[in-house]
Amino acid sequence: MISAKNKIPIEKCIISFSHNKYSTREEADTFSMAKAEREMAAGKLGISHLILRAENDDIDRLKFLFLIRGIPIMCYALSNLLNSSLREIVVIGSEEVKKIMDCFLDVVGTCGKTIRFAQEDAQHLNLVHTMNLGRELLSLSPDELVLFQPGDLPFLYDLEKVLRFPDNKKHNLVLWLNSRQKMFPEFEKNLDSEFVKRNYHYRSLDNHSDNLLDLKEPNLYPINFSMMDSDIIDNLHSSRKDGQIIHAGIQTALQKPLRLLKVLPYVVNHLLTFRSNVNCIRPGDQYQFGMSRKNFHKGISHLLNTPLTTTVHDDPAFVSDVDALEDWEDFESLTHYAENAHGQEGLEIIHPFGEALTRFREEGMPRLKTEIPMYQDFPSYINSIYATLGMSYAPFDKEGQYISPNGKLKTVEVAYRWYKQKCELLKQNTAHENRQQA
């Protein structure tokens, strides 16, 4: 197996504001509504009316362009990178993404980063092609990890723990797994403490432990591209949703039969022990895939022929992506709550780049409202989507004021308090580091 001896910290990032398209709006909406209906019928915790693009849209329904408190999601995500120790950033997206990026950087600056843009290929919107567009603009060494992430994580601003993770040195792929128990340790006692509602299809057992974790797939990937097969990355990512990662493993195994022989001992051990171990801890637990972390690390590392590791974190911002209307509402309600409490300074109370984001809303968005069709009347645009997808309410009134009943949920206040505390701590740590450097 290929070894790893990578540099720390990670200094380069590819962020994708690109997404695949359905052939027609009708096809996209049918898929979105059917998924939500299945989740409701099954009594799932997270209900998702997905935000999907279609070839025949008059306005490109690209989720990264949606506004959160008047600011594009992509600007939050880009600000997280600007606020980090990264040195080079490649942005991938559409012509509209380029317009918004340029306007944003004109207002807030680059914070000393080198930022390049790659136009998405409308004929090839798959992950591998998108990654390659980014790789072509980076000069990479064989001992270098790159952070790859989609641009729908607006409040994932604590990136240093990823960029400086010690295990980056010894692994060519690091999966930052989302653990329900780690992120929301009180969820069984206090339902409101779980302010991000998601469905957790995976299970993990630590070695020689009864620590059973409910897991959800990662949303960002530190990768050494020179040590990974691009088709494997595509399989892992495209099959990661809804507990389908086992299918990716099977596809990969069939393509690499010699590696499968090395994996068999871990698979046999898993088949003989895992379900019985889970039942001893949580009888009758229903899940789609699970494994002990030791078996998973060793088995997948042999299958991929490169060292892989996983880590579980305690940061809800890692799982809080914007795939669906419900996700968008979580952040619209959060930022609305903060600005109701603190006025124009509300955003900087919960986001370390909040002052610059607010300034961009005042200085840059008036121009973009004349250039981006989605922004000419965003409240009406969103309300029309809610109506088309059969939602029972509209989030904005006729004057464009946010009136969603979800904005009054207890979980919004809990989320506000969590991000406020997180933001204060990061600012204190940054100030302390600056004093030490001085």
Provide an overview of this structure.
By secondary structure, the chain is α/β, with parallel strands linked by helices. Helix content is 44%, strand content 13%. The chain contains 16 helices and 14 strands. It has a single domain, classed as Spore Coat Polysaccharide Biosynthesis Protein SpsA, Chain A, CATH 3.90.550. The N and C termini lie far apart (45 Å). The radius of gyration is 22 Å and the shape is globular.
Tally of separate domains = 1
Helical proportion? 40-55%
Q: And the CATH topology?
A: Spore Coat Polysaccharide Biosynthesis Protein SpsA, Chain A
Strand content bin = 5-15%
Radius of gyration: 22 Å
- Overall pLDDT metric: 91
What would CATH call the homologous superfamily?
A: Spore Coat Polysaccharide Biosynthesis Protein SpsA, Chain A
| CA distance, first residue to last residue | 45 Å
Uncertain ranges: none
Widest sheet, order of strands: 7-6-1-8-12
Q: Which CATH top level class fits?
A: Alpha Beta
Tally the helices. 16
Total strand segments: 14
Protein structure class:
alpha/beta
So what's the overall shape? globular
Helices and strands, in order, run as EEHEEEHEHEHEHEHEEEHHHEHEHHHHHH
